[in-house]
Each structure stands twice: as C-alpha cells, then as structure tokens.
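It is worth pausing here to work through a concrete case rather than discussing structure prediction in the abstract. The textbook approach is simple: state the sequence, then state the predicted structure, then interpret. We follow exactly that order.
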Amino acid sequence: MSQRAMTTDMTTDMMVKPRKSDIMRRFAGDRRGVSAVEFALIAPMMIGLYLGCVEISDGVAADRKVSLTAAALANLTAQVTTITDTDMTNILDASSAIIAPYAASKLKITVSCINIDANKNATVKWSVTRNGTANSGTVALPSALAVASTQLILAEASYAYTPTVGYTITGTLNLSDKMYMSPRQTAPTYGATTCT
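Step two, the predicted structure:
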C-alpha cells in the first residue's frame, strides 16, 4: 500500500469516526436547549409563587370581610333603641350579606348587649346568634372599656375559610373578629329584654 493510499484511508476514518473529545466539545458548545432547561428548572418555582400570592390575597380579602361584618353588626345594633325579631333578622341578614362572594353558610355571627354595673362587672343581658353560640353570664372586657354604669354592644363574627390550593398545607382556617360599640342613644331593648 502506498503512502498516499494510507493517508487517504486515515483521513476517511477520521471523518467517519470523530474522536470522543470532538463529540464532547460539540455537545458542550451546543446552546439550542438551554432555554428549555432553564424554563423547566424555574417554572415550578414561579407557578408556586403565583399560586401562593393568589391564596394570600384571597385569605386577606376574606379576613377583611369578617372584620367588616363584625363592624356592621355592631353599628346597626347600636343605632336603634328597640329591636324586634323582624329588626334583628334584618340586621343579621344585612351583616351576613357583607361576606359575599364567600359562602354565608360558613359565617357565624353573634350580637350581645352588655351591661356594666357600678363595680365594673360586665353581664350579658341579651344575645342573638346566627350559626353560632349566644353569649350569657358575665364576660371579661378590656380594662379601657370597663366603664362603670354603661352599656356596650359586642358583635362577633367568625368564618371557616378553606384555601383553594393550599388546603392540603393549612386546612381550614378560622378567621374571626369582634367589635365593641357604645349605643348611640340608649342601650337597645331586644323584644322585652332591656340591657340595663
């Protein structure tokens, strides 16, 4: 075999069978799939972050609605001097409507009239509830609100909030708030029960 034929055969072999180092160099220099790999690594984190932000926003909105419900319940009750059963139903309905678009069936609201005697002992005179438990007996008040020989309206609202996506992590959250308010004129009488 001549020198020229041998060189041609070697050149042909090198073209057909590239060396392993050449293959690795070409593979390392290939940038066609980099964006897809980066997206695959970052996408789960970004989707989780987005869903987390949506859940937090929805939870904060529900908590705000619970606070507004308690405030409306106290305010509506404190405006009147006499409350009939029909009036109380209307007050509870109006307060419950604030929780929309969340389900009102998960909302518990209670309104109570508290009498504080000369010794600053607070006693519930009447209490009405929807889906909850009515208050009775003596109650503990914050010291700033325990003013002798006065009355207070106590409105309580709680809501069983279930996150849409994060339910498996947190379960159902009990959002609650309460509002104390002084009667605007005199302590309201509910039916035949006075608050004094």
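Step three, interpretation. The chain has a mean pLDDT of 87. Residues 34-190 form one domain.
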